[in-house]
Every structure is written in structure tokens, then in C-alpha cells.
């Protein structure tokens, strides 16, 4: 504090930026002192969401605003990429949207940067902060999550997978704690399963998406991630960046087989995006040429009883259009590069 106040030599307005301020001693005293400096605006960075739940920030909540900083969106990445949009997309999917990646020239430099970032920042910080003893088991679980994008999982299923993949034991309770640590570190986002008709959350299974695709690919050793799930992850991140709560929609549809007793079939809507009074149902598909995939995506949207916006986003470069049931079909780049694309 003496250093900061010693630099404020007159009545001019000052901007004070504190990086990783949770690492300082006497955080509460410093921040409370700065609150009484009228000619300043204070910005602090936190690299772990867990700190937001501490008594310090609870005491300061009515005096501060939280800004969640995401990696670059594809629109931001493309706007500064020196090349064609298709090439930008390819690099974005491989190395992600961290700004520093764009300043590196070679693939080797980008890979090394991401590997170091994961091991020296993310992994080390989570291990130290949460006093994790089984570092190897924690690291291997993260890699299993990276290979499970788009799959409905829970701690019990992950424990079973871990046992079969690693031939070792990691209990469901421990895995539950580990998942919480990963969310607090903003490495993954959790999407709950929402019963659309009942408007309630169901079951214990959820989906987990990586907030940064470059780190996900590093964990996979840059083995090619399934394109369908890659696009799904990018769309989930985009919806979060646009301020939406993102759930996975579940829908039960009755199938009438004439004289036979009607049977129910369960369908999934990739994303139910909600913000204020608005809701959007979003499906993703790789290509319109795959008629079976598109048909499967259309069925649950066609049976939704409400009038909220429904859309299917495909990788194909198509002109946006609405089918006979009012469902919007939209190209991936049109969606990602246009901030108003959800209201076309």
C-alpha cells in the first residue's frame, strides 16, 4: 500500500491493476484500503474461481463487479488472423483462442507454449490450491475428460472408465471433488441435463466442455478430436461468451404404432441456451449431406411445444433459411462471426 500511495502524487485519477492479487499477504487489508481512495479505479485478476467464495470477496461484493474473461472467440480470433477464414478455423480448433498463441509462428512453439501453460499454471495451481496428493491420478482424469467431450458422464461412470483405462482405482467421491476443482479453475464448464417439458433438471449425468480447445488438444496429444464433438465444444463456449446459461435438453416423445401401445423415445437437444426471458434450442450437425444426422437433429425440435427459437448449425457454407416448421438452418461461420446470428 505504501508503494501504491507513494506513486499517487496528485489529485489525478489513477488506475490500479493488481495481477493474481490472491497471492498477496493481507489481501483484505489492501483491498479495503483501496476502497477509500476516491481518485482511483482498481482492477484485480483472479486465476481461480474458488477465491470468489472467500470472506474477502464476500465483504467487497457490493463495491465491485465481476468480469469473466474468456479466451478469444472465433470471431475475435479470425479478425486478427493473417489468412483465410478456413485456415483460421483450422488453427483455432487445434491451438485454441489464447491470445499468446497468435503471436507464435511455428506449430512447435504453439505446442510448447500450451504444454507449459497446462503444467506450470493450470495443473500446478490446482494441485497446490486444493492440496491434491494423487497428482498423477488427477492428471490422468483430466485427460479422460478431454477424450469424453459430448458424452454424458458422472463421477461413477468416470470411476469405471478410469479403472478400465488406467487399471487403477479413483473413487467417485474423489472424482467429484476433482471435477469441482477443474470448474473452479475455469478449465471445464458443466452443462446439466434439463427435462424440457418438465422444466427441471434430471439425473446425475452431465456433459463437460473445455473452455480452451488448445489445452484440450494438448491433453489428447493432438490426436484428432471427433469433428462433431469439436464443433459442439466450440458452440458451447460461444454461447457462454454470449452470456447464456447452457444446458443439455432432454425430451420424451411418444411414438404411436397404430394398435400397438404407444412407446416413448428419448431425444436430446444439444443446447438449451437461456438468458433472462429468452430461450434458444440449438442443435449442431457436421453436414447437411448426412441426411440421417440432420433428421435425428430435427425430430426433437419438431416436437417442442413452445415458440422459442429453434436452430440447427451445420459446418456447411449455406444461406440461412427456415424450414416449413420454422426451424432455422444456419452455417457454422455465419453463426460464429455474426453476434446477432441467433435472431436471424
Structural commentary:
- This protein is an alpha/beta fold.
- It has two domains: 2-63, no CATH class; 71-344, no CATH class.
- It is built from 14 helices and ten strands.
- It has helices at 2-7, 27-35, 55-60, 74-80, 85-95, 99-102, 107-130, 135-146, 155-166, 172-184, 213-219, 227-241, 291-302, 332-337; strands at residues 14-18, 40-44, 188-195, 200-210, 245-255, 263-275, 278-285, 309-314, 321-322, 328-331.
- The strands form two sheets. The chain has an eight-stranded mixed beta sheet, with helices on both faces.
- Strand 1, helix 2 (27-35) and strand 2 form a beta-alpha-beta unit.
- The longest helix is centred in the middle third of the chain and has 24 residues, at 107-130.
- The protein is globular and about 75 Å long.
- 27% of the residues are buried.
Topology:
Blueprint: H1 2-7, E1 14-18, H2 27-35, E2 40-44, H3 55-60, H4 74-80, H5 85-95, H6 99-102, H7 107-130, H8 135-146, H9 155-166, H10 172-184, E3 188-195, E4 200-210, H11 213-219, H12 227-241, E5 245-255, E6 263-275, E7 278-285, H13 291-302, E8 309-314, E9 321-322, E10 328-331, H14 332-337
Parallel strand pairs: 1-2, 3-5, 7-8, 8-10
Antiparallel strand pairs: 3-4, 5-6, 6-7, 9-10
Helix pairs in contact: 5-11, 7-11, 8-9, 9-10
Q: Which overall shape is indicated by the principal axes computed on the Cα atoms?
A: globular
Uncertain stretches of 5 or more adjacent residues: none
Number of strands: 10
Radius of gyration in whole Å, from Cα? 23 Å
Class by SSE composition:
alpha/beta
Query: From N to C, what is the helix and strand string?
Result: HEHEHHHHHHHHEEHHEEEHEEEH
**Number of H/I helices:** 14
How many strands, which pairing sense, and closed or not: the largest β-sheet? 8 strands, mixed
The rounded distance between the terminal residues' Cα atoms is 51 Å
Helical coverage, percent range: 40-55%
* Relative strand content: 15-25%
